[in-house]
Design goal:
The protein is built from 4 helices and 12 strands, in the order ββββαβαββββααβββ. It is mainly beta. Strand 3 and strand 4 form a beta hairpin. The protein binds flavin mononucleotide.
């Protein structure tokens, strides 16, 4: 492949996906039908994420829309840690809507009922039917994945809280913790190998 960075130019946003018990940062989100209160939205969730397990156990999930003013802590908490290890919702302000926590420090939220699911090798693409939604802020520009890529250094203050060295995927921002990235390691997000990982200097 000559240069997969062109995928950063696909116009998509940045969201916090939440389910009871946790959630994660997602950008692989697309409206795939309907609009307004009829919206059908697809989100691809990696099978390696704990959120995938939580999603399989719950009927509903939510997407909170991140703005360009999003607190980097939020991205750190939801994008670089696992709900298996920490209570992510306890680390930020949430509100419960239709039984699902949504993130208050966001531009607003959408709560979905699981409508369909498409299984592929690494991800399940969940399609949700909108059941509730609200706008908290319509002044701030929504954060796009391209914006995230441009500002990745400020937005990902990756720390080595797990007491290990952090290696950041230069393409998608995924963090591998460990002394060395194993030779056969494949980024669970973008599928690229060890060569794409850079040691995070604090
Ligand atoms: C910018 C960014 C975009 C991400 N997009 C996705 C995505 O679309 N789908 C996904 O499954 N994980 C995505 N992730 C990775 C998860 O947020 C991350 O692996 C998280 O730590 C999983 O947490 P969990 O184990 O609690 O589910 C993204 C992470 C970042 C930083």
């Amino acid at each position: 492949m000559k240069n997969s960075k062109i995928t950063h130019k696909i116009t998509q946003g940045m969201y916090i996906l939440t389910v009871p018990g946790g959630g994660c940062v997602v950008d692989a989100v697309s409206r795939v039908g309907g609009s307004g209160d009829q919206a059908l939205v697809a989100v691809a969730v990696a099978k390696t994420n704990h959120s995938h397990k939580l999603l399989s156990e719950n009927d509903k999930f939510a997407l909170s829309v991140l703005g360009e003013n999003a607190d980097p802590e939020l991205i750190q908490t939801f994008g670089f840690n696992s709900s298996k290890d920490i209570d992510k919702c306890a680390k930020c302000q949430t509100e419960e809507v239709a039984g699902v926590p949504v993130v208050k420090d966001s531009l607003g939220y959408m709560v979905f009922e699981k409508f369909d699911a498409i299984d592929n090798d690494t991800h399940t693409i969940y399609i949700g039917k909108l059941v509730e939604a609200d706008v908290f802020d319509d002044k701030v520009t929504p954060m796009t994945y391209a914006y995230y890529q441009e500002h990745k250094d400020e937005l990902t203050k990756t720390t080595t809280t797990q007491g290990k060295t952090a290696w950041v995927c230069t393409v998608c921002g995924y963090v591998y913790y460990g002394d060395e990235v194993p030779d056969d390691f494949i980024c669970p997000l973008c599928g690229l190998g060890k060569a794409y990982f850079k040691k995070k200097e604090d």
